[in-house]
Specification:
two-stranded antiparallel sheet, about 40% helix, about 20% strand, Rossmann fold
Length: about 325
């Protein structure tokens, strides 16, 4: 089975980074846009918005934001009701993204919507965010066709890049793949998006493959699409990079496709369909427990703020 975009389409952006990408993406897809966040600064746009009101709490936790997001679940369900396809963009390194993504994905699945999600994972030095990102990602993978962008793998392969440059490269790759949904289908399951900074196309391919290695072994790749960007990429170069990728995966059952686009800068964006374990499975130590063995799997962990006049006992 493959994910195929159908109209009408709704692009949902969660939190700051997710909202910015959704605003850029919905115009090219000829789709509507919905922004959801607990921070009102993320919602200052003419798109439709849902504010997750956390009251007077200055720095709410991920679990508290999720608890309040659950209160607007009926509003989210109403907003998506008239759409066939949902494109969800969430930065799981941020509180809003990791908190709200499981709520939205579950609603979309229950409503029978065709859904594709783009999940941006944190850097490894963001230690306080890794666990929550892993928990939310597992939910997204269960509920949708999921495309994972690993900022940490991009930085590992390009240690000279600044944090801002990593974001720019990753965001550009995400937008390119989203735009491609108009004319192509994507394999269901988990897909890893890898890319590199602009430069020689063959060098870019090798760096993209190196980035993929950080997240999953090449033996787990079942299908790979190479989006080759540039203004003067020759047929010989296309043949060369196809041969390189085929030799790397080393499996006759692995399909390698090539798509070309004109661009001022040359680089390769690689989208690989994965079967088996990935690096992200280790983000949540309890993730190895099957969902059918967990009592509360349908409801992600959250907390609520309640005022109880309880005396402290010593």
């Amino acid at each position: 089975m493959a994910f195929q975009l159908s109209q009408p389409t709704l692009v949902i952006g969660l939190g700051g980074a997710g909202s910015k990408l959704a605003i850029d993406a919905h115009k090219n897809l000829d789709a509507d846009c919905l922004l959801i966040s607990h921070d009102k600064h993320d919602l200052k746009h003419e798109c439709s918005t849902i504010s997750v009101n956390t009251g007077s709490i200055v720095n709410p936790s991920t679990y508290l934001i999720r608890g309040y997001a659950d209160k607007v679940a009926s509003e989210i369900k109403s907003k998506i009701s008239n759409y066939s396809s949902i494109v969800l963009v969430a930065n799981l390194a941020g509180k809003a993204g990791s908190a709200i993504a499981p709520i939205v994905s579950h609603i979309c699945k229950e409503s029978g919507k065709e859904m594709i999600s783009f999940a941006i994972m944190p850097f490894k030095f963001e230690k306080d965010r890794i666990f929550n990102a892993g928990v939310s990602l597992k939910r997204l993978r269960e509920d949708s066709t999921c495309i994972v962008v690993d900022n940490d793998a991009l930085l590992d392969c390009n240690p000279d890049l600044t944090q801002k440059a990593c974001y720019e490269i990753a965001n550009s790759a995400i937008l390119h793949v989203i735009n491609s949904l108009k004319s192509s289908s994507l394999s269901e399951g988990t897909n890893i998006l890898s890319t590199s900074k602009a430069g020689d196309v063959e060098v870019s391919l090798r760096e993209s493959i190196k980035m993929l290695y950080e997240d999953a072994p090449p033996s787990s790749v079942k299908r790979s699409i190479l989006y080759v960007l540039g203004s003067d990429v020759t047929v010989g170069t296309l043949n060369s990079i196809t041969n390189i990728s085929s030799k790397v995966f080393g499996d006759d059952t692995t399909q390698v496709g090539v798509s070309t686009s004109s661009s001022e800068k040359s680089n390769v964006i690689m989208l690989s369909t994965i079967q088996g374990e990935t690096r992200f499975d280790r983000y949540d130590p309890l993730g190895m427990i099957p969902g059918d063995h967990v009592l509360d799997w349908q409801n992600p962990d959250c907390s609520i703020s309640c005022e109880l006049n309880l005396y402290q006992l010593e």
